[in-house]
Amino acid sequence: MNLTYLTNWHISHLGMASEKISYLLVLWEQQQRKMTEFISAQDFADKRPLVPDTTHLED
Questions:
Q1: Where do the H-state alpha helices sit in 1-59?
Q2: Does residue 4 surpass a pLDDT of 80?
Q3: Superkingdom of this entry's organism (predicted)?
Q4: Phi and psi of 38, rounded to 5°?
């Protein structure tokens, strides 16, 4: 095998690996964002009063 073939093979495989890594990083980032949004929603839900607000019913 010649050196050019080997070099091209390595470059193409490194390229594929970097694409896969980029894809995994995007997936991980999306998952982190979903978790953050979920936790924020949970925080908001935890801060709501347990007793329903009936002030609008009193007239």
A1: 3-47
A2: no
A3: Bacteria
A4: -65, -45
CA distances from 45 to 31, 38, 41, 52, 53 (A): 21, 10, 6, 13, 14
For residue 43, is pLDDT > 60? yes
In the numeric block, which tokens belong to residue 31? 């998952």
Q: Residue length, the chain? A: 59
pLDDT(34) > 80 = yes
Residue type at position 20? K
Question: What whole-number distance in Å separates Cα of residue 29 and Cα of residue 23?
Answer: 10
pLDDT of residue 58: 63
Q: In Å, how far from its chain's centre is CA 33?
A: 5
The pTM score is 0.45
**H, E, C per residue of 26-37:** HHHHHHHHHHHH
